[in-house]
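Lecture notes, unit on protein representations.

Consider one protein chain, 378 amino acids long.
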Amino acid sequence: MNDRAALDLLVSRGPLTRTQIGELTGLSKPTASQLLARLEAAGLVRTTGNVTGRPGPNAQLYEVNPDAAYVAALAVDQGGISAVVADVTGQVLGEERVGTDAVDEDAPRRTAQLVASAVDGALAKAGLGRERLHGAVIGTPGALDPQTGVLRYAPHLPGWHARELKDELAGVLGVPIVIENDVNLAAVAEQHDGAAQGFDDFVLVWADEGVGAAIVLGGRFLRGATGGAGEIGYMPLPGAPLARGGDRDAARPDGGGGFQRLVGSPSVVELARECGVAGARTVDDALSDDGVRAEVARRLTTGLAAVIAVVDPRLVVLSGEVAQAGGEALRALVEEEFTGLVLPRPELRISDIQGNPILIGALQTALAEARDAVFDTA
């Protein structure tokens, strides 16, 4: 326990002296010295210079040894796979983007080849080989059914629905693989270093090409019996066509039916054109118009009201392309629309994560898995 407490401090605060570690953990100087000697012998910490400019002998600084473990994080979308490789401290060392055209459509084990190509590219830029990896976390639309191991709710990702895919990927990379819902990973990023810091009960609503939600209650994800909790893109709402075709509808370019047809990126652009917004080609173009922004806020609030009535979270975070394009102006309109529509009134925030929140959440999850294993000195 003392070892782990010291390692966690070094990860969160950076290099510390023996005295600082003792003060922050409550350990005596002899115990802190023994702990650091043990961790250094195990290859988990290393010295990194001295503290100068103070009276007395210079105090030696200790830091987590970045070479203790390396992890890969991946984010999958319809266009391809983004991958990063980082050391156990969280320092990103290599990044790679692989398009779906990187491997022929009829190639055997095509999905595994795409994943391996993305990871190998990031490893090469980091100057590492596959044998240095400790584990990998992959964020995808949809979710793995805990009963069958099959990816569900993501019909637009061909090749990702094989029952044996997870084992196949682990075999190719030679490390344990975690496949997690992409919106859940965006919520991990928000809770770690974003708008949901300090919240154990919140909902993240992702409005982008696809629409979904991550529901966190008591610090844990609500997943549902088949992994489908939060698949609110299918949710029937007034003004949206019904997604009676299920996955078949969701695979259509327009998203089929349900909430996604109201607030997904393509629908927002389509709305702007219907409203006569000249030259509206992007979500940013569409939401620059006051009327379009007001209508999108109304649609968002209608869907959010259904979620809030059931879950009653303390916080709702709006994320994805639509939320980022709408910004504070859209958030304020949604909050105004809440009046008279929902009884619980959670705090409403816009995501403030810089970069790809899915990839960031995948990396945080991979680091947590690696640290739990590598930092266990028992």
